[in-house]
């Protein structure tokens, strides 16, 4: 099956690193992709830091990444806000705010939620609730709706999905989700590597069977490779169905399998 894979989309947090810990063999595996000229993009829902800071972090970990190799839900969210001329009430950590430099945030007409632990408190959530309940046309935009993430202690921590759902429940609204696993996110990532017309030749590698490998990835017919690191918990593989799915111990094993069958 890996012989059909000609390009890769690779998750970041939990897949190639967990906070400041690199997954063993990940750096060497990425270097092999470059040496073999196999097209790839890092496709991530990471929202706690800006795209620039994320690239800097990856380089600090030893990955030698350039800006064009990283496609984030945060940058996709920024583009959506600019295109629709929203003035967002942002739930973002300080390290992520530079992504929205130059965007008017006065007199908000939209609520935008990323992974922002320091912002998820009653007062700020209530500000968002009041903005939405007073004007039913106020959109709720979720950078992503992950239920949890692998924290720096390698245990699971609560993701933004529950906070998005709380506002959906309280206001009767439905969020616009920008990041994985939406089909639109994967389509944009595929376009960047030139495989928008042949998604069946691309594999997504990730540790989250729902956020990385669900919905849009399945609809597009991507190969879906689950790795047993990060968010992975025993039994997740039972949620993965289809002939184009596989489970690997790590991203290094998944990449090596693709490289071994690459022409």
UniProtKB/TrEMBL annotation:
Q: Write one Gene Ontology MF term.
A: pyrophosphatase activity
Gene3D superfamilies, per the entry: HAD superfamily/HAD-like
Q: Where, per UniProt, does this protein localize? A: Cytoplasm; Nucleus
- A GO cellular component annotation in the UniProt record: cytoplasm
Provide the alphabetized UniProt keywords.
Cytoplasm, Hydrolase, Magnesium, Metal-binding, Nucleus
InterPro entries, alphabetized: HAD-like_sf, HAD-SF_hydro_IIA, HAD_sf, LHPP/HDHD2
Pfam families assigned: Hydrolase_6, Hydrolase_like
Per the record's keyword annotation, is S-adenosyl-L-methionine included, yes or no?
no
Names of the cofactor(s): Mg(2+)
Query: What is the protein's major site of localization?
Result: cytoplasm
Write down the PANTHER family for this protein, in alphabetical order. 4-NITROPHENYLPHOSPHATASE-RELATED (PTHR19288), HALOACID DEHALOGENASE-LIKE HYDROLASE DOMAIN-CONTAINING PROTEIN 2 (PTHR19288:SF46)
Question: What functional role does this protein have?
Answer: Phosphatase that hydrolyzes imidodiphosphate, 3-phosphohistidine and 6-phospholysine. Has broad substrate specificity and can also hydrolyze inorganic diphosphate, but with lower efficiency.
Q: Which family does it belong to?
A: Belongs to the HAD-like hydrolase superfamily.
Q: Could you tell me what this protein is called?
A: Haloacid dehalogenase-like hydrolase domain-containing protein 2
């Amino acid at each position: 099956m890996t012989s059909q894979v000609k390009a890769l989309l690779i998750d970041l947090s939990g897949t190639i690193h967990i906070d400041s810990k690199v997954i063993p063999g990940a750096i060497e595996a990425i270097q092999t992709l470059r040496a073999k000229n196999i097209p790839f993009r890092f496709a991530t829902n990471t929202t706690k830091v800006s795209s620039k800071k994320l690239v800097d972090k990856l380089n600090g970990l030893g990955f030698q990444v350039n800006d064009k190799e990283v496609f984030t839900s945060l940058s996709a969210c920024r583009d959506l806000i600019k295109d629709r001329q929203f003035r967002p009430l942002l739930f973002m950590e300080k390290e992520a705010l530079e992504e929205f430099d130059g965007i008017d945030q006065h007199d908000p007409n939209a609520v935008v939620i990323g992974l922002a632990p320091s912002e998820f408190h009653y007062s700020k959530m209530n500000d968002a609730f009041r903005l939405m309940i007073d004007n039913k046309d106020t959109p709720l935009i979720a950078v992503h709706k992950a239920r949890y993430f692998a924290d720096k202690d390698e245990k699971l921590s609560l993701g933004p999905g529950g906070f998005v759902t709380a506002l959906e429940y309280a206001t009767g609204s439905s969020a616009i989700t920008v990041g994985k696993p939406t089909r639109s996110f994967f389509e944009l990532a595929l376009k960047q590597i030139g495989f928008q017309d042949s998604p069946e030749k691309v594999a997504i590698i990730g540790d989250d069977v729902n956020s990385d490998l669900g919905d849009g990835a399945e609809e597009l017919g991507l190969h879906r490779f689950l790795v047993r690191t990060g968010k992975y918990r025993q039994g997740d593989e039972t949620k993965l169905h289809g002939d184009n799915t596989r489970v690997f111990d790590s991203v290094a094993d998944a990449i090596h399998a693709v490289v071994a069958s690459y022409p």
